[in-house]
Structure formats: structure tokens, C-alpha cells
Amino acid sequence: MNTPDQQIAAEALSVPEETIIDACGDPPLPELGIIEQNWETDPIAPDAVATHAARAVESLSFADVPAGGEVALGVGSRGIANLPTIVAGVVEAVSDAGYEPFVFPAMGSHGGATGEGQRTMLNELGVTESAIGCEIRSTMDVVEVGRTPNRDVPVVADDTAVAADAIIPINRVKPHTDFDGPVESGLSKMLVIGMGKQRGAQIAHKWAVDWSFRRMIPEITGQLLDELPIVGGVAIVEDQHDETTLIEGVPPSGFLDREEELLETAYELMPKLPFDDLDLVMFDRQGKEISGQGLDTNVIGRRPFSINEPAPETPDIKRIFTRGLTEKTHGNAMGVGSADVVHEDVVAELDAQTSLINALTASTIRGVKLPPVVETDRAGIVAALSTIGVVDTDTVRMLRAADTMHLHQLYASPALVEAARERDDLRVVEEPSPIEFDNGQLVAPTLRE
Questions:
Q1: Is the pLDDT of residue 390 over 90?
Q2: Nearest C-alpha neighbor of 338 from the set 303, 362, 363
Q3: What's the domain of life for this entry (predicted)?
Q4: Which of 61, 62, 171, 418 has the most CB atoms around its CB within 10 Å?
């Protein structure tokens, strides 16, 4: 919920609709229909998720862990389906094997870079002590466990995890928004950045400027595996509907090779926009639980604030208009700079301190640069379409999506609806009709799964 001061600031920065119309004219806007992507998926049944998580643990070796020893479970990534159930399944399997599990937040600087803030974040993810059946130990304290051999970079890790008899990170394997490499977001990244807390995350992002994540993460992962009692990890892969499709125990020897294979699967299954060449895409919201950069860079084809990393080759989107922030992002507008225009609701909901801390830690301050702010949805559409050259409502290629994670159904302009009719992977759900506004704001609801 935005404060009165935030609303005042938003209105002060926002350009009125009438000003946009005076500058751009009052052009006709394309009609929008609804199209749907046809995805073949095979998710794990909800009542079987905990069992799959337990089997993942049972596949790992605890030969060097003393009887009754403590096992630290790293948890903390947002947006993972069934996370409390998966963690509870891991906890039960560890307990049944005769060990004492506890959870520690492995989320870098998130949660305002405080122990209590990270505990609160776990709570919001549904990971509470009562839900998972074990203790949660949340601090920001780290210890240095070594230094990299060539660059002499300190390697740090959560002190409660280091003191345990075994460590198991639990994380989703998926494409990262900031870089491409054989290992991106997953178990290794959770060890290097998540388990490193705020200090480790900041060290990693600073050194990535010259070193690059694609080289840093494998090297530091190898060092952590050598120095700490990591018995393996629980890897999760999700399908296009963000449903759990795979839960697998990965031994230490597979943190790089097996993760690379799982990453290829995740790339194949991730939701994508169904067209590579687009004039305008409206996203109803962005947020940290949607993507670390608010809008997934792999979906939008933009990476304007990454550290020495090229943007994805596709898609090519001329203009992006973002309409708001998710509630769960708590004002963190990291990645808002990916858009060309934003609605004043984005600014009204934005927490400048949280966003900047995230950007400073990640060394990507360009990611929180504020695009032009408009008063209404109609103003945003007009501003975007009026700056891409001559626009014909019959040929303009325009989409509206809920966010970069939910792409099953999309609003589409007539040209894209016609294109969808010719494709087996798309279906026309609703024929185009005029865009309806109420005081300049879109009337049609957000499309969800």
C-alpha cells in the first residue's frame, strides 16, 4: 500500500494524459483480442510434491555426517511453486534419516539486509517453522571460508550454515536475468550469493564487473564444495505454467555438470512471448517474485543494466509500458529501467530505499533509473505508439501481458491475432474489440493462468 507522500511524489512526476495527447495527437488505437499459447506440460501432482522432495534427499550421501548431526537447509528464492511443501518434504526426509535439520535464509541482501527481514520474507513465502517442521535460524553474520586462488577474493558464507554438519541448498534451476553461462540461477548461485548474505552478494557483484558471473560462480562453487560439508542440493525445475515438474537430488559432483543439463531443460520450459518482433508490450506488473529484475530479461530481450553481458538475441520489442508493481515485491522496483514508459502507479508503489539497496548490492544502479511517468494507461499507450514511427492499427504488433511469468493468455492486436490463426502453438480465444478505458485507465482485467 503506497503512502500519501508516495502518491504525491507520483503525481508530481507524472505527465497528465492531456499533455501526452497535445504532444502526440489523438491517434486511433488498435483493438485487442485474446490469444492463448498451447503448452504440453507434465507437472508433479500437488499431493506428490513432498514425496518427490523426500526422494531427492534420499538420493544424497550422508556418509560423512555424524549420527544426529545438524543439517542446514538453504532456502530463500521467491516465486517458487510449492516451496513450503518442498521444504517440508526435505525436512521430513532429513529427520527420518536421523539428523537435525534447520533452515537458514540463503537470499543475499534481500529482506532489507537484516536477519529479521529475511525471516519475514521466508514467512511470506510460507516457509514458517510450523509449516516446515523445523527451526529457522536467520542472521546476516558470515565467516570467511577461503579466498580465490587467482584474484584473492574473499569467499564468505552464513555462519550458522558453516557450523552445521551438513549443508543442502534448495533452489529452482532457471535462466538468470543478468548473464548467460553454463550455470545460471540455481544451486551454485545460491551457495555463492545467497549463502554469502549481503556481504557475499556485494563481493560477487563487484567482482563480476571485471570477472563475470559465468566464470566466478563455477570457481567459487568449487571452492565452497571443497571447504564446506555440502552433501548436495535439491534442484527444482518448473514448467511454462510455473508448476513443479521436476525435483531432483544433485550430489556435490553434479553442481556444475548436472546443473548445466537442468538449465537446458529450464530454458526449454520457461514461458516466452510467442512473437519475436513486437512494437509494444504492456506488462500489468513487475516484481521481484516475478523475476530478479522485475521483468525477466530473457522474456523481454533487454538487458540494459547487466554487467558486461550482451542482451538476449530475441525478442525485439520497440516499446515496453509497465503499469504497476506486485504486492509481494514490497516496493522493490529493481529493473524498472527496462521499460520505456511507466504508469504513475509504479512510482506510487515504489520504495526508493529498498530498490536502491538491491541495485547497489548488485552493482546495477541503471536498473532503477526511472523511465517517463504517465498519468493513465491511455497516455502510456499513446506515448509508446507515437514514438515508433508511422502506426497502422491493422498492422501494429502489440501485446498486453500480466507479467513476464504469466504468458499463457495474452491480449493481442489484430495483426497478431491473425498470425495466431496460422500457428499450431497458438489459439484465438477472443476476437479483437476496441480498448475500453475508464478515466484513461484500462477496463479489461489482467489475464492470469
A1: no
A2: 303
A3: Archaea
A4: 171
Whole-number Cα distances in Å, 32 to 276, 324, 396, 410, 442: 18, 20, 11, 9, 12
With bands split at pLDDT 50, 70 and 90, how would you rate the model's confidence at 233? very high
Radius of gyration of the chain (CA): 23
On the question of pLDDT at 1 being above 60, the answer is no
3 state SS for 336-357: HHHCCEEEHHHHHHCCHHHHHH
Question: Cα–Cα distances in Å, from 319 out to 41, 131, 253?
Answer: 31, 43, 44
Kind of pairing, strands 32-37 and 409-412?
A: antiparallel
Q: Give the number of other CB atoms < 10 A from CB of residue 419.
A: 16
How many whole angstroms from its chain centre is CA 12? 30
Nearest to 292 by CA among 212, 200, 404: 404
Residue 416: helix, strand or coil by DSSP? Answer: helix
pTM, 2 dp: 0.78
208: β partners: none
- CA nearest 302: which of 289, 321, 318? 318
pLDDT at 314: 86
Cβ-contact 230, 247 below 8 angstroms:
no
Report whether pLDDT(6) > 60. yes
C-alpha to C-alpha distance for 283 and 328, rounded to whole angstroms: 16
Q: How many contiguous H segments (helices) and E segments (strands) does the chain have?
A: 16, 18
And the C-alpha cell for 36?
Answer: 492463448
Distance, CA of 16 to CA of 91 (rounded, Å): 54
Average pLDDT over residues 52-72: 97
Per-residue pLDDT tens over the stretch 275-322: 999 999 999 999 988 888 889 888 998 877 766 667 778 899 999 999
Q: How many CB atoms neighbour CB 243 within 10 A?
A: 17
Beta-ladder partners of 166: 71
Other CB atoms within 10 Å distance of the CB of residue 439: 9
- Cell for 56? 531427492
C-alpha cell at 203: 563481493
The 10s digit of each residue's pLDDT in 97-117 is 999 999 999 998 778 789 999
